[in-house]
Task: structure prediction
Amino acid sequence: GHNRELMEQCQSLREYAQVQTFPKEFKFVGTKTDINTLIGNAVPVNLAAYVAKNLMKYALNTRQQYSKEK
Result:
């Protein structure tokens, strides 16, 4: 699959983690197989932060609109 092709292009697990936007200081624990699976299954960190930030904005906006309607 896609993750296997991406991993084959990367020189190391650390490079693979950078592609998934893990911070450089993130500490991985486990076997190489465990770490590879963790990285491959992860939602990219920057994407998760972007989605969370926008969901929070939406929730706060919705709350304010609801408060005004009452």
Summary: The two ends are 51 Å apart (CA to CA). The CA atoms of residues 35 and 55 lie 29 Å apart. The first helix runs from residue 2 to 9. The helical segments are 2-9, 13-19, 32-41, 45-69.
